[in-house]
Amino acid sequence: xxxxxxxCLRLLAILEKTEGIEVTMLVQEKKRDNPKVKAxxxxxxxxxxxxxxxxxxxxxxxxxxxxxxxxxxFSPANSGIDISEHPLVQEADIIHLHWINFGFLxxxxxxxxxxxxKPIVWTLHDMWAFTGGCHHSGxxxxxxxxxxxxxxxxxxxxxxxxxxxxxxxxxxxxNPTPTLPNRKGVNMVACSxxxxxxxxxxxxxxxxxxxxxxxxLDTNLFSPKNKxxxxxxxxxxxxxxxxxxxxxxxxxxxxxxxxxxxALEILKTQHSHHQDIExxxxxxxxxxxxQKLPFKAYALGRIADVNQIVSIYSAADVFVTSSIxxxxxxxxxxxxxxxTPAVGFExxxxxxxxKNQSSGVPPTGFLAKYKSAESLAEGMKWVLFDANCDELxxxxxxxxxDNYSEKVVIEQYLEVYRSMAL
Length: 422
Description:
CATH class of the largest domain: Alpha Beta
Mean pLDDT: 91
Number of helices: 14
């Protein structure tokens, strides 16, 4: 579940179609009916044990967390399962790691995988691999040295706090790796240039190969549909300007929903045609929060049907993300592939996707100043009422096709695999 899982499944689907490659995805617990996905936890007991590992991991951190808002933003990786003897791992020529936290792989589990001396590709979906435990460090740059004094996440930050202990443990595991031949080493792949640049500055990954390769997207599936038809199909008004907000759970602090709310209030106050605006909210939301929004909102809840999601993207006039910590969001990519321009903060990998009119390249939306509700409101107004909608839509779609389509991304991964092949 989540963005990393979706990206991983998309890569799996492309590799399945690639001649000369056999691929299997090994997960802690299987949620989908995909024969190429194998689960560690299959029986009732195994699932209970997997949940117990997750609980142990969370409880261990709970007593050291700064507050409950950061509870799931820091992973000590003290609980996990050893997969080094698993038949699929033993048979593999290359091990490709993705997101491995929340009780799946512990630091001890990682150490055992590294000691197999098999080529490892590790796709970084956040910063966890090269920090002292946080998934996003924000403005903190302690990861460039040795972590410690973790003010953002720990209740009692000290030079030798939990973040420093985790950094030291990772350093013990990672340190021998760069001395191995590249074909038997570990290649780090970041999903954005922003994350790649951060990884290269980290103390833990000095000597590692770090490359930026974006997540892939099926641009045939995610493609523009007729806006009016999509709205009629979804029961949405055909005569309104629709703003789309998407989040698995809008209450997650990193999604910055409060900035979105404030920007909407500003938009309503400052724009004379505010009566033409309505909202579409996709994802888990609180009815009380939705009712307080200044515009009429259609809360669609969680939707698993991909074709319906494509229709939702196509129905919108603008996609807005107010995330304050991001890598390379699948949602922006999906919206733009469907011809819907995006508005978001200048943070993480978002500036690599959203291009302003003044950027010197074809604009794909509006890049707002970080944590500025005023700028976010300005962006929504510009896309909805001032920009050339047809041009923006065409540019957004082309940006995804040129940079994130399956054929573009898979070639970059195949190059990495070939460089490590036996």
